[in-house]
């Protein structure tokens, strides 16, 4: 399965946010969207999901224009993980995850035993079976994010679009989610996720797209795209990109000068 | 049905049955439970009830229509309240949020002003409620590109105010001796004059409204996640929203057309039901309807027996509802976030 865009222009009802974005994502690949606040990451994702109509160009799944598809057909292929939010009503966690099954359930039907099994398996994959009967509004922000990922997995999608899946999480849960993303990609799912942390791109991104001012600045492997120059250009701060010995990854460290007071013995 | 399902539905059902029997037994002409049982038995299985004709008349002509109306109106208001609250993701929403009550009110007030027969007043009230919502929905659809739910609610508030002003205008011109008391009484809500033919008109409308709510009961949960998430999960929210709004409006308009404007039931009963059954709509809907039916039956029984004259129901539901709502607001942990 391939998700592609060709010279995509996107925005809200005639108010353009970005344009000229051409990307292609294949099964088993992790594409990261990196860019400053207001760079158009969320709007682009909503357009990829078909929630916003493209202003120019089209979003294609295996070459077919998605805008002609029913919501149900899209939802069977593309799963969405929104940023963790407070729900309005105190649903049980399992009820939230079951809602991921709606594209597989008849219009007038309720979830079946099979749907329940799929939902419970999704909770299990993320290691949060114990939250099953808890109330969604009473668990932590990080746990909510994991529940929303479980809901998207219950959708059994081929492509997963995640809007800053790690931003609400503590350090341990960030690592767990990144591992999960890598595992999902190994199982053949294409993952698109946005992040504010270039280290996460190095950890599990196959490719990264730099989105700045609604334009696709660069797209390619993290090692070639994420450079001190590129980070300086889009974030306006001095950063060093450092190889970590014994680990096949790199990390970004801001220039210490002006950040830290000198500690003297 | 599971054990928890029985517990959830059993208690409200039992309460409703007890209230039903009590409503016959309380009043200026009390019908004791054994007389009621004898008359019902005779009606169902034939034979003589052995109860004086006067008692039979009270049961069939006076008490029963009113009790059935209370049950029907209470259930309808609670069901549409639960629907609107889920749909608009706002626990402060009530069935009249889209101008239903104000639209029906204007229709009824105009009907009374023009000295139309009662049946015609009910029909105009019904059409007024539907008409108000159609206009509000039209405004919402015309303002594209904004949060559709927010636009609907705000347009509903504006429409309600506008219709309220129109009602006041009609009241100014109404005959203060003949028409104004009738108008006031209608606007405060009452089941005093409900007859069996009235019920025959309203029951189908309530049932027609209930069908989509029942069939789409699980989909309703998606709507309460918000438009974007629901669509990402595969729901055609525009169609579903029209169906839910249409069904809830039909039920509210039908109820209001015979009872007048009864506030607060559609607002607080869904909250109480959510405390018992949780927010999952297929579990919430039946509990809300049972509680709404029981509550209005209790309030109506109080309204016709507490004083020498009938007290309008709307006054009682507000006196009970508002403090209860504040208590709920202060204490309920599982209501909403």
Main traits of this protein?
heterodimer, A: 265 residues, alpha/beta, Rossmann fold, 6-stranded mixed sheet, 13 strands, globular, B: 337 residues, mainly alpha, ABC transporter involved in vitamin B12 uptake, BtuC, 14 helices
The poorly predicted ranges of chain A are none
Going by CATH, the architecture of chain B would be Orthogonal Bundle
Indicate the CATH class of chain A. Answer: Alpha Beta
CATH superfamily of chain B: ABC transporter involved in vitamin B12 uptake, BtuC
Measured as a percent range, the helix fraction of chain A is: 25-40%
Largest sheet strand order of chain A: 7-8-9-4-10-11
* Rg of chain A, Å, rounded: 19 Å
Order of helices and strands of chain A: EEEEHEEHEHHHEHEHEEHHEE
What is the count of helical runs of chain B? 14
Q: Could you say what the CATH topology of chain B is called? A: ABC transporter involved in vitamin B12 uptake, BtuC
In the residues of chain B, how many domains can be counted?
A: 1
Proportion of residues in helical segments of chain B: over 70%
Oligomer: heterodimer
What proportion of the residues of chain A form beta strands (DSSP E)? 25-35%
